[in-house]
# Entry
Amino acid sequence: MNRRGVALVVVLWVVAVAGTLVVTGLGTARRGIATSSYRLSGIRARWAGDACLAVGRATLEAALSDDRYSLWQDLGALSAELDTLRLDTGVGCLLKIKPADSARLDLNTASREQLLTLPGFDDEIVELLIAIRRIDNLQQLLNRLPAPKKDSVMTRYAELSSRVQFQPSKVRAVGVGIVNQKAIPAVAEDWVRSGSRIAIVGRELF
# Structure
């Protein structure tokens, strides 16, 4: 092979290597951009989730200060009230909130099927409870029951008391960030009520 042929082979080899390096570099750059974009979305989602949690606490505390305790009992109403807050261009948040102490059944929010699993409860008692739906203790329910039904509940009173509650003692609130129309669970807090204030007793980042 003459010198010109050798030079051509070398040039072609250099071009091939350079092309490979360029393609590899572009792939790495794209992955880096995608990773940076993902991290940025996570940061914005956490900021948005924190904002929703702060608004949720403030809304609850304002309600408690006005003696509107029903909002603490009806957590679905609070979630609906804070459904998709817009915080910035392409960024919003929503709040998902539920009782954290799920071992006990909340008589003010439980479904008909759940209530029928309670000792001493039958269709008539459950229908009456659903019609009332706002009680603070078992005695209020007993006062509304006819004598035979009251006796049925009283014979299981101790067991019933250990299985029910009338408002959540602790709630789990999850701040969900919405970034470019994508919902990203970002941060969760456990709240307890202390008078008209909400105390944070637990926090978890996703």
About this structure: The chain is about 50% helix and 25% strand. The chain has two domains: 37-101+168-205, 105-165. Residues 105-165 form one domain.
